[in-house]
Amino acid sequence: MNRVVITGIGVYSCIGQNVEEVRDSLFKGKSGIGFEAIRKEMGFRSALTGILPVPNLKDKLHRRFRNSMPEEAEYAFLATDEALKMAKIDDAFLDNNIVGILYGNDSTAHAVIEGVDVMRQKKDTTLMGSGSIFQSMNSTITMNLSTIFRLKGINFTVSGACASGSHSIGMGYFLIKHGMQETVICGGGQEVNPYSMGAFDGISAFSVRENEPTKASRPFDKNRDGLVPSGGAATVILESYENAVKRGATILGEVIGYGFSSNGGHISQPSVEGSARSLKMSLKDAGISVKDVDYINAHATSTPIGDMFEARAIHEVFGDAKCPVTSTKSMTGHECWMAGASEIVYSLLMMQNSFVAPNINFETPDEDSAKLNIVSKTIEKNIDVFLSNSFGFGGTNSSLIVKKVK
Amino acid sequence: MSNEEIIEKINGFLVDEFEADINLITPEASLKETLDLDSLDFVDLVVVIENNFGFKAKGEDFVNIKTFQDFYDYIIQKVNQPA
User: Which homologous superfamily does the CATH classification assign to the domain defined by B3-80?
Assistant: First the structure.
């Protein structure tokens, strides 16, 4: 079995457009949430969203690449470019080694709708343009990045709802651990446009605290009223420990545990039992006890039901261990398909810089969150091991454990 | 629309949409080679023609278009063709 390490991270999110900016935002507890007026005109219950600019890649990529890329692929390109540079993986390495990609994504709403609008209006398919098909497929991120970076290894998209990014890292870890790949680009991307979030808004999942955007996402707080949608992309470069050492790469952390489960129940309602199984499986895979975990990055999205179930699952598994718990979604909103990957990046930044980022807006505990050690202000703390949860619609659960390599 | 206006419009979208170097666009130059067009690019050429001139070019129309001048002539002829 190979040890699996992280040698590069990259991120493009509403709390920063690179690792450095994101680290500062996490430390300061800065929210990336705002109000997007167009959503009200479109009939949204809530116009709250993570706010981030769509990048301009004209100077970075040939028009033929850009033509096939929806916004989520653009975010993923920037995050991956940053992560590869951090990992010191250059063009020559990519050309001479088998590097794979597994990236989480679960929608391409904007590209699909724009393409179909042309077809409906003009009664013609050619006029949809050549980029529409490549932008519209759910594997758009992996097909674009594998082309841009000339990748020759594993190459597919992981669609596991809001656990997509986490499962992508879990699957990359599995392949490297078992010797089937040496290096895999993992991550998650999420479109932020209103088209992608209308139906989610329609089931009343979003916070309507529109008069206080930065206070709207309040995981575990008694007065939470829903999540705030967000997005961007985050990339994690995984490789075998042996390969990383041989290359002289800086090792940022080691993935030591992956747990997963399916609730086998309701399509949107989580379960304590299913979540707890994922947590326990990751601990067993890592070969550690709950006392070894220094920080839990919770999935908690700020919905009344979801946070309650997760609080109960964490309490069931961790008991009175009192490990610090925060949901960085309090600052970022719910980054959905990206979240499982971005939250590994956020937690790694905390581990590297010895702090726990706050669960902002956690003011009043409820019966379940009161049993956890939820940190509402930044604390300085050495983190040797962290655990990150991701849960998604359809009852898909993923838990990852990362350890500092000393 | 005069022929000069049509040519100006064509060069405009070739620079904007296909990021062509205006200095390389000469009547005798090869359209395909100068713009480095592949099969997918021809689909997008059909799209920009429709957006700018309101007619849909067919794939076979491009068979005899070799130079920029051929391309200009083709568009001019289609634009001036009675509906």
Answer: ACP-like (1.10.1200.10)
